[in-house]
């Protein structure tokens, strides 16, 4: 068992006394300074291991002028962040890379919907992070440009066509939405389609709507189609179908911008004794877990959110280290075709789902 000086934290002075040198010499030895000979360095490392020395991250940061922290900035409320599967997957991917690099992760959110700058200001003004990952920013959010201009290394998750110099990673939402919409048209003969969009002040919502419109226009069914804006919640899927009332019978297919809204629409249709997928086929987007456990299970687009967050975080550490690399990285997605569109039988299992890869259309960046 290693010998420990006491239950208190082991200090540089403890190591210095054991080796017979000064604390400053111990600090230089641990930092690999060339002024310290190899024999002394080996003795210091051995003593540090024996005593169970753990470096102080605060002291390291003070000496190096680094915070030893990266930030995950989400300009929405903590309640929304920690209550949504997407953000938990992003948090998992980001924190795993932070742990591998032995730095802390700061999650910066807004206290409420009226204080939209708090998540940014907490990071920009306090110098509390060496770099930041940003996700879920609105299209018209002016603080995004301030964040980029601040000089802080930043990698953004999503699509930001109005910021061509930003480093971004994400999926081709437009191409994926077009693909899942075309599946309903070409594989299931649906021609009267309803799109439940996400908030259109976010690029994701606009891109998924535009992909839907690309599909219905290309197949000549635009006149029989409709877009209703939602907020990505299950309740907005319920509300959209309820407000249509008897008018919902005008549609034989629903393309929702996420699985929560698809589920809200599904439960409302079934409560009205409208058969899914017989009378109305439904597809969603994301595949973060909900779509697999509903009845019927929901056909959707599988977004690898955790992998995207890892890629963003790894790129951030490269930028912080001064390493050149890609500016835009697009990740492919899969269509996961289950019961709600009619691809598998009602008694099918998850193993019976049909998975169809969808490669990004490409924007000159790197796909993978």
Averaged pLDDT? 87
Compute the CA-based radius of gyration: 26 Å
CATH superfamily of the largest domain: Response regulator
**How large a portion of the residues is in β-strands, by DSSP E?**
15-25%
Reported by name, the CATH topology of the largest domain is: Rossmann fold
Tell me what the CATH architecture of the largest domain is. 3-Layer(aba) Sandwich
Q: What is the count of β-strands?
A: 14
What is the helix/strand order? HHHHEHHEHEHEEHEHEHEHEHEHEEEE
Give the spatial strand order of the biggest sheet: 2-1-3-4-5-11-14
Supply the CATH class of the largest domain: Alpha Beta
How would a textbook summarize the main sheet?
A: 7 strands, parallel
Helix content: 40-55%
Distance N terminus to C terminus? 47 Å
Any idea what the shape is?
elongated
> How many separate structural domains?
3
Q: Give the structural class.
A: alpha/beta
What is the number of helices? 14
The low-confidence parts are 1-7, 363-368
Write a concise synopsis of the structure shown.
The protein is an alpha/beta fold and 368 residues long.
Strands, helices and their partners?
Blueprint: H1 12-19, H2 23-30, H3 38-51, H4 57-64, E1 69-77, H5 78-82, H6 85-100, E2 104-110, H7 118-124, E3 131-135, H8 143-149, E4 154-157, E5 168-170, H9 173-188, E6 193-197, H10 203-218, E7 226-229, H11 234-244, E8 253-256, H12 259-271, E9 281-283, H13 290-293, E10 300-302, H14 305-320, E11 328-330, E12 333-337, E13 354-358, E14 366-367
Parallel strand pairs: 1-2, 1-3, 3-4, 4-5, 5-11, 6-7, 6-8, 8-9, 11-14
Antiparallel strand pairs: 10-12, 12-13
Helix pairs in contact: 1-2, 1-3, 6-14, 9-10, 11-12
